[in-house]
UniProtKB/TrEMBL annotation:
Native source organism of the sequence: Candidatus Methanodesulfokora washburnensis
Protein name: SPFH domain-containing protein
CDD domains, A to Z: SPFH_like_u1
SPFH domain location: 24-210
Pfam families recorded: Band_7_1, SHOCT
Length: 329
């Protein structure tokens, strides 16, 4: 675009969050046109100074007082043109889409996790332009709509993955709307507000368990019932199927063992060693698997709590079991 004395964001698209005026040499007396649902922010050296609300503004010392004061301290008033970056920010509502993958427990009391995928939509707007620029400017490669949109989507996805990892698959499937509402109200909305954004709404369009769905086709005898039990929130049935498959795997029987490929054991939570498939071509070895010390088991348990893999209730229950074993030993 050619440089004129009228500074205006023209041809803004419906998905454009912001636009940076391409020239930094600003003349006193230039006119800045700010449309409805926009704001114009004056920056210099990465610092935010003045904000212009919707209207037609002639650049004077009255409407950019902070920037004027900064220039007086450095070189005195009157230099024209002066250096500044003008960022136009849209205050309209925007819609984004997300798709995430996180590891979750298959049920609240199960000692196995699996992969959970979720997708959905979110709606947001810039509520505090100054805070928004302050928080976002240093976190993106460039102040463009694409980079800012990617940052917001990645930021939301990370929050959702962290929160979903604290929940079980049975809980997510049976209470998807409530889980989404809690995550939005308790975590995401506040995190957005700290970056000058308002999270208007968050909706999960659906969730899936891709590894279990794959095993459900390969092992319909146990994979399908396990998947259905998780989707219905039937924890007792989930635990019973897993216990059955664990027993068959320990005996070297193949039926049902395939679904274990879709599950990840929480490491040595109770000090038990992971079960290895039987090797029929090798003679059985009478050697006893090495057991972890009580101290190691307690340390691992505490780390799992700190990483959000287990709840405080799980931690207290298992810790008591380990301490009871120590007292009996």
């Amino acid at each position: 675009m050619s440089k004129t004395n009228v500074i205006e964001w023209t041809n803004a698209g419906p998905d454009d969050i912001l636009w940076v005026y391409p020239y930094e040499d600003i003349r006193w007396g230039s006119v800045v046109v700010v449309h409805e649902y926009e704001t114009a922010v004056f920056m210099r050296d990465g610092k935010v100074y003045d904000v212009l609300n919707p209207g037609r503004h002639t650049i004077t010392t009255q409407n950019i007082p902070l920037l004027t004061r900064a220039y007086r301290l450095v070189m005195g008033y009157g230099e024209t043109p002066f250096k500044a970056t003008i960022v136009f920010i849209s205050l309209k509502q925007f819609r984004g889409r997300f798709g995430i993958s996180s590891r979750v427990r298959i049920s609240p009391n199960a000692l196995y996790t699996t992969e959970l995928q979720a997708f959905g939509d979110y709606w947001f707007r810039v509520a505090d332009p100054v805070l928004f620029l302050t928080q976002i400017a240093g976190a993106v490669k460039s102040l463009t709509t694409q980079d800012v949109s990617n940052f917001i989507r990645s930021f939301l996805s990370e929050l959702l993955m962290q929160e979903l990892s604290k929940r079980s698959a049975t809980d997510v499937y049976t209470n998807l709307e409530e889980v989404t509402r809690r995550i939005k109200a308790d975590v995401v909305a506040e995190a957005f507000a700290q970056r000058g954004l308002e999270l208007i709404d968050l909706k999960m369009g659906g969730v899936s368990l891709p590894l279990l769905e794959k095993m459900e086709k390969e092992d319909p005898t146990y994979g399908l019932p396990l998947l259905i039990a998780i989707q219905k929130g039937e924890e007792d049935q989930v635990l019973q199927i897993v216990k059955t498959v664990e027993s068959m795997r320990a005996l070297g029987k193949s039926p049902g063992a395939g679904i274990m490929g879709a599950l990840f054991a929480i490491p040595q939570m109770l000090g038990a060693q992971p079960v290895q498939p039987a090797q029929p071509s090798q003679p059985a070895q009478p050697t006893q698997p090495a057991q972890k010390s009580y101290a190691d088991r307690l340390r691992e348990l505490k780390k799992m709590l700190d990483d959000g893999l287990i709840t405080q209730e799980d931690y207290d229950r298992v810790k008591k079991q380990i301490l009871d074993e120590m007292s009996r030993g």
